[in-house]
Every structure is written in structure tokens, then in C-alpha cells.
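Re: the request from the purification team.
They wanted to know what the chain is likely to look like in 3D before they choose a buffer screen. I agreed to run a prediction and write the result into the notebook, where they can find it.
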Amino acid sequence: MELEHRFEVPVGVEKAWNSLLDMELVGPCFPGAILDHVEGDDFSGSVKIKLGPIRMTYKGHARIVEKDEATHRAKIEATGNAGGSTSTAAMLVTATATALAPNRTQVDLVTTLSLTGRPAQFGRGVMVDVGNKLIGQFADCVSTKLAGHESGGAELVDVTNPDEVAADYVTPTPAAAAAFGAPGGAAPAAGELDLWSATATPILKRVLPIIAGIVALILVRKLFKRHPDGTE
């Protein structure tokens, strides 16, 4: 799946650009993320996910594979897996910073995401809603770090969903796979990305109209089955 989001930060383009490349600054802004190690353009860490009663910790490796100072455009590849399961995640993020004013910058994020295992069981629409919520939280966190106040969330610009889009663009390399590492002992205290909480509202938005329709149909049928004297 490919998602394109856009948000603004109340700082100049150079500050925004340099901050987006500073993983120690913006990495923790992703809900549930823990940054373990940064060395140059390579960094590793984990993301803790709660899926109902199930808790998973994805450990992985990421690298800034492209940086264009002239266009303020960067590409980041990330791969990871959840210890003790077959669930994997692969992601390619293209970030572009565009100056709108001396103290206002537009950030465009194109995220190509491939998931396997339990999180992949959610439908496309639900994952889009989850992506919107997470990117919105990320945008507000980045804006708060840079300027002391939130950005107002992120706008979903486009969604592309060829089944193979992520596989075509993001394939875990042997080096990245070797960098996964085992989950180890107890996870560090940190925020947890609650996928059920993030998906509950989108799911209810889809299910409630169906339930309401069924209830209405039952009431109509009962109404028409009544006799003139009010009996059925």
C-alpha cells in the first residue's frame, strides 16, 4: 500500500529539512517507536504494537538511502520483524520539504508499506485510517519539537494499492535482515502503538451503519406484520 500525506511545520525550510534527517530528534515522534542506535545514515530500533490482547515488538534497521540537498528530498528504507512470529514489515518513505514562506514549510511524505502476519489482516480502508492517525500524531510531534506547538495534523493526499506495490519497491536486503536481532529481554519502558485503539473508530464507522440498517429492517418487518388490532 502507498499513502501520501502532507503537513506543514511553522519553521523555515532549512530547519525543517535538517530536522527531518535528524533521526534522534524525529524518530521518537512515531507512536510506539524506540530508537536504539544511530550511526551516520543508519539507525536501528523497535516499534511496540498492541493488537487487542496481543503484543508484538518489531525490531529492525533503517537507512537514509538518498538525500538531495537542492530539492530537500530524502528516501528512507526500513525493514523489521516481530520476534517469535512470522510477521514482517517493510517500508520506503520519501520525504520532501518545500518552502511556503520564510517561516513555514510543507512536508510531503510518501509511504510505501508492506506488512505480513496479523497486522496485515486489517482491510485496506482500516489501514488508511490508521495511517492517517499515526502520520497526524507524527506531524504534531515534529511541529511541537521544532516550534513548540502542534501543526494541526496531516492531510491524506493520495492512496495507491496495487498488491505488489510495496514488494516492488521495498525488499529486505540480507544486511538489513541480519540487523534485526532477537527481541531480547524486557522491552524498555516506552509508548505502545495500540492498533486496536487506532482501528476501533474506523471499524465502528463501517459497522454501525450496517447494524442500524439491520435493526431498521427488523422494525419495518415487525410493523408490517402487525394486524389492524395491533397484534402480530
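For the purification team: Residues 195-225 form the longest helix (31 residues).
Please add any questions underneath this entry.
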